[in-house]
Design goal:
Strand content: 25-35%
Order of helices and strands: HEHEEHEHEEEHEHEEEHEH
Number of strands: 12
Radius of gyration: 19 Å
């Protein structure tokens, strides 16, 4: 998606028609924003085509909350012993919220309510209640829309009933760390059950207790995923460090504490 956006901006600034072909649809924040500003962008059968304009109009925008950051608080609410939580003013862009569909397939009690639109981005609230989760299969076609949420989904899967499979997630090996290795190694180290088969990640849920130290590999999403898992009453973990979440979510631990205290 970042490469696609860069090409679209280059076409806009260079006043050149740009055509991008996508094998699998990726995030479309840029297409939505530019369309709302009057740029002609056609999206048909995996082809994104931009026709440049002379200039963009001035605009003001309130940036919606990031779904990838919200996913961690949602996970904590699902694992909490009681209470409910609503995340307010978050982007509900369907190319960013596929993880909500996966959670609902897993039995999570989640409701969304669109309250507005910001430069083409649907914005709204996400309400969550503690839920008993069951295993699910996440197919390859879903991965581009939830690749950043796989660490926290895997953490949740470790407390779900059954075996969850994430298909074609080899890209996780080249993130801030090798997230496939970090997830499987840490889950096994604390008493869970997880393994990699080719490009697929398998996580078998456990009804017992987890304890031990988690090596975050200085990866913000690994650290936040296991911090959320620690909310569960049968889990007692220590993170190797607590600085990495500041890369994407500086107030993460304060917000996580608020969620847990209210529960």
């Amino acid at each position: 998606a970042q490469v696609k956006s860069a090409l679209l901006f280059a076409g806009l600034l260079g006043r050149t028609t740009i055509t991008v072909r996508e094998r699998i649809p990726t995030r479309d924040h840029t297409e939505r924003m530019l369309t709302a500003l009057g740029v002609t962008i056609d999206v048909t059968d995996g082809v994104v085509r931009l026709q440049p304009i002379d200039s963009l109009p001035p605009f003001a925008v309130r940036i919606p909350g990031d779904p990838s950051s919200a996913a961690f608080l949602i996970a904590a609410a699902l694992l909490s012993p009681g209470g409910s939580m609503t995340v307010v003013g978050v982007s509900l862009n369907p190319t960013r919220t596929a993880f909500l569909g996966v959670l609902q397939r897993m039995g999570a009690i989640i409701q969304t309510d669109q309250t507005g639109v910001e430069l083409g981005e649907p914005v709204g609230d996400i309400a969550v209640e503690p839920s008993r989760l069951r295993a699910a299969e996440v197919n390859a076609v879903e991965i581009p829309s939830l690749v950043d949420e796989i660490p926290v989904l895997a953490a949740l899967a470790s407390r779900a009933d059954g075996e969850t499979v994430f298909r074609a997630v080899g890209e996780l090996r080249v993130k801030e760390c090798d997230r496939l290795a970090a997830l499987t190694n840490n889950l096994v180290a604390i008493g869970g059950d997880a393994w990699v088969d080719g490009e697929d990640l398998h996580v078998r849920g456990c009804g017992g207790s987890y304890s031990g130290q988690v090596d975050t590999a200085l990866d913000h999403r690994i650290a936040m995923a296991f911090a959320c898992l620690n909310v569960h009453q049968a889990v007692d973990l220590q993170l190797s460090e607590d600085r990495s979440p500041g890369v994407s979510y500086p107030g993460f631990f304060q917000d996580l504490t608020r969620v847990v205290q209210r529960a």
